[in-house]
């Protein structure tokens, strides 16, 4: 379903853009991949970028006609910016997840219910279908993700962190900000007290009668949790010293490094996949293959500019730099999440894309305040190089 190449991403984008206007606005909530872009695995790894998608959309539609789709693209940007200013939320998720996994090891009832949910053996037909669809394809429609999370939390009454981890292990587009904060939103932890309840009539309507679930929770009491940490400063983009020996690091966070290569001459290139760090448990092999294939495609696309390319791990990156006598390692900024965690002990010059630098400062409160800035962000985007 998702070939991990730039060519496939561009083809999917070109196929979808005619539908990105009112057709998308009218049909996007129906659980059918034909009504959405299904570009998220490509955007998450920046095989194509948000800017690519927005420019292609605006070449076919006015901002007003494509408003709903444009907002969906910016939701991902908003979540990232919000988490960058509150990295403690990611740390709390990881700690709470480990505590939940410890419970799974010691509480046989919880372990049985968790395993049944992951295998799609709960007896709730729609939920079981989505669990199997996710593990088999690496993808779920966004509306199905909301229903699934709600049923996981309020009907099955399983720890939300285990559900978020289930998604991270199987989603090709598994993004630490979008995934973690969306699960928190469903459970009433993100927008304090506001929950999302999966209702049978809504599922019947937007699956066009394919599912008519019974026995779902009829009330969604907000989960109890730690209050949001205070908002901190945004990261500052690193400055490249053009007078020293420089190497390039490519990670799965940004597989379109052309914008960086315009800023310096690289003596050597290292590639690193941190996919296994997305979860304490084993990743779905489809996710591993997708990120590996996407990285290979990136290296092939930019082969003439990269020079000698070496696969490294967090543990071998410093040794690679010494082998090539490098004074600095430049990489696209590593957002809060597993890749950043894996490289926390490595000195890097992390450069923030202008797209992110323009948008993240506005992710201070809720999305509805953020979306007021979208028209201005679109104007800035058209004048920036990355």
TrEMBL record:
<feature type="binding site">
    <location>
        <position position="24"/>
    </location>
    <ligand>
        <name>FAD</name>
    </ligand>
</feature>
<dbReference type="Pfam" id="PF03441">
    <property type="entry name" value="FAD_binding_7"/>
</dbReference>
<protein>
    <submittedName>
        <fullName>Deoxyribodipyrimidine photo-lyase</fullName>
    </submittedName>
</protein>
<keyword id="KW-0456">Lyase</keyword>
<feature type="binding site">
    <location>
        <position position="69"/>
    </location>
    <ligand>
        <name>FAD</name>
    </ligand>
</feature>
<dbReference type="GO" id="GO:0071949">
    <property type="term" value="F:FAD binding"/>
</dbReference>
<dbReference type="InterPro" id="IPR036134">
    <property type="entry name" value="Crypto/Photolyase_FAD-like_sf"/>
</dbReference>
<dbReference type="InterPro" id="IPR002081">
    <property type="entry name" value="Cryptochrome/DNA_photolyase_1"/>
</dbReference>
<dbReference type="GO" id="GO:0003904">
    <property type="term" value="F:deoxyribodipyrimidine photo-lyase activity"/>
</dbReference>
<keyword id="KW-0285">Flavoprotein</keyword>
<keyword id="KW-0274">FAD</keyword>
<feature type="domain" description="Cryptochrome/DNA photolyase FAD-binding">
    <location>
        <begin position="69"/>
        <end position="202"/>
    </location>
</feature>
<dbReference type="InterPro" id="IPR005101">
    <property type="entry name" value="Cryptochr/Photolyase_FAD-bd"/>
</dbReference>
<feature type="binding site">
    <location>
        <begin position="173"/>
        <end position="175"/>
    </location>
    <ligand>
        <name>FAD</name>
    </ligand>
</feature>
<dbReference type="GO" id="GO:0003677">
    <property type="term" value="F:DNA binding"/>
</dbReference>
């Amino acid at each position: 379903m998702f070939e991990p190449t730039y060519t496939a991403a561009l083809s999917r984008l070109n196929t979808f853009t005619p539908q990105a206007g009112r057709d998308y606005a009218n049909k996007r909530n129906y659980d059918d991949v034909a009504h959405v872009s299904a570009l998220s695995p490509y955007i998450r790894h920046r095989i194509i970028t948000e800017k690519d998608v927005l420019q292609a959309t605006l070449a076919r539609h006015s901002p007003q006609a494509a408003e709903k789709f444009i907002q969906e693209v910016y939701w991902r940007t908003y979540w990232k910016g919000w988490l960058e200013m509150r990295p403690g939320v990611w740390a709390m998720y990881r700690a709470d997840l480990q505590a939940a996994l410890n419970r799974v090891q010691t509480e046989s009832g919880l372990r049985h219910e968790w395993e049944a949910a992951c295998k799609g053996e709960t007896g709730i037909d729609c939920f079981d279908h989505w669990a199997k669809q996710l593990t088999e394809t690496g993808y779920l429609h966004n509306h199905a993700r909301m229903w699934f999370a709600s049923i996981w939390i309020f009907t099955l009454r399983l720890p939300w962190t285990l559900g978020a981890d289930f998604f991270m292990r199987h989603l090709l587009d598994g993004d630490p900000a979008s995934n973690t904060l969306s699960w928190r939103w469903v459970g009433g932890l993100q927008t304090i007290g506001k929950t999302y309840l999966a209702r049978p009539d809504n599922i019947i309507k937007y699956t066009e009668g394919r599912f008519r679930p019974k026995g779902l929770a009829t009330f969604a009491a907000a989960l109890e949790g730690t209050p949001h940490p205070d908002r901190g400063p945004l990261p500052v983009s690193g400055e490249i010293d053009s007078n020293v020996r420089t190497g390039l690091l490519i990670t799965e966070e940004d597989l379109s490094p052309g914008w960086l290569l315009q800023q310096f001459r690289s003596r050597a290139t290292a590639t690193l996949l941190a996919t296994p760090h997305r979860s304490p448990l084993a990743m779905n092999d489809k996710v591993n293959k997708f990120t590996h294939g996407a990285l290979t495609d990136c290296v092939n696309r930019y082969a003439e500019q990269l020079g000698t390319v070496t696969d490294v791990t967090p543990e071998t990156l410093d040794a690679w730099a010494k082998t090539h006598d490098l004074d600095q390692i430049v990489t696209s900024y590593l957002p809060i999440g597993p890749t950043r965690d894996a490289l926390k002990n490595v000195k890097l010059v992390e450069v923030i894309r202008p797209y992110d630098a323009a948008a993240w400062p506005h992710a201070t409160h809720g999305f509805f305040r953020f979306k007021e800035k979208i028209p201005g962000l679109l104007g800035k985007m058209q004048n920036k190089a990355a």
